Amino acid sequence: MEKSKVRKTEQIPTAANMMDRLPRDIVIRILSRIPLTYLIQLKLVCRAWRSLIQDPLLASDHFSNMANNDPSLIIQSHLPDRYQLFFTDLSHDSQGNLISKKPPCPVEQMFLKDSCNGLLCMRDARDRALYICNPFTRQSIELPKVNSPAQLGPLEFGFHPTTKEYKLVHIGKKYCPSNTNQSIVEQHSEVHVLTIGSLTWRNLGTIPHRFIRKASKVIINGRLHWISKPKKRYSLPSLLISFDLETEQFQEVPKPDCCGSGSGIYKCFHRLMILSGCLSISAYQNGQLGIWVMKEYGVKESWIKEFNIEASLPRVLRKPMLRGRFVVNPYPFVRVICSLKSGEILLEYGSRTLVLYDPQLETYKKLTFPEMPTWFKIIVHVGSLNWLDTPLNM
């Protein structure tokens, strides 16, 4: 009996000799479906496995498989533990309890700025240095600083699928004399671009648009998109502006008439997002959040209003604070984070609460995990094997 047991054990293939028994492309297909944290551990098995885990083909295949699933999230705590990062893939039980993990890469005193192809753009809170890092592979590179007198504005991270280049776009405030009246000073935006791998930023000059520093942006078709702010309080409605990461040109994109023809940004708050692969915009007005989707990119007539959501935190989820006789709702604004394959929509209320909304049943479910911060920043992020020396060419 003892000899029989030994022979059976010897016949069982182990992970270490899988590469000897199967073609490399088959091994890559198998590994591309394994959770990221396990792949990082396999890298420590031996030199052969280290080489395999760092194979750009595996990185691309794995990222494609993960991107086809429901979106994952990176959450950075602002309170109580500032700078702490959490990663969750939105798996949860019937009670709304998320499964979260802390990425192995320490991010002490680093602000989360943006995410692209599994890479994070971080800013050091002390000396304002910029970094591109992968929180799972523990790799990071420091970027050159922006040499500009313009005041700090939006900083966005993007990738163009044709040029295969990663770029950072910095938009700073700059005050210039008016073209019509030199005694009048107008606010413009000064644009600087850094191609990852280059040593210096390039100054593209100024553009006659104003961008909100904390405004939402999205990237689609190799273009970054923002909502520009009107120059004056009672001016024309805000515009939807795009920046082509290949040609480095700005242009206006038609947006829906979601707030009427005469409402400015002060009467209607806009946010951008990607829903089902389409450019989308949410418009907050009169206590309701309307979500519009551009079914055909660049075509104004293709904008369709698909959802209308209660903008304040639903009553079933409220834990109001009492001040005398008044009940104060601590989460007055809602932001759409992403959509799931099930058709549900992930909402964030006041940077304090995550809610999963089912538009078919019109139900709300609060999502949380044991270490859930009381105040946080959240972005969609797909963890990847994106090695900084050979970044993903998706």
Question: What does it look like?
Answer:
- The protein has 2 domains: 2-59, no CATH class; 69-380, Neuraminidase (6 Propeller), CATH 2.120.10.80.
- Helix content is 12%, strand content 42%.
- The protein contains 6 helices and 27 strands.
- The protein has helices spanning 2-11, 18-21, 24-31, 36-42, 47-53, 56-67; strands at residues 73-79, 85-92, 98-101, 110-116, 119-124, 130-134, 139-143, 155-160, 165-177, 185-195, 202-207, 210-211, 217-220, 223-229, 240-244, 250-253, 269-275, 278-285, 288-294, 303-310, 321-323, 326-328, 334-339, 345-349, 353-358, 363-367, 375-380.
- The radius of gyration is 24 Å and the shape is globular.
- 31% of the residues are buried.
- Residues 16-66 form the F-box domain.
- This is F-box domain-containing protein.
- Pfam families: F-box, FBA_3.
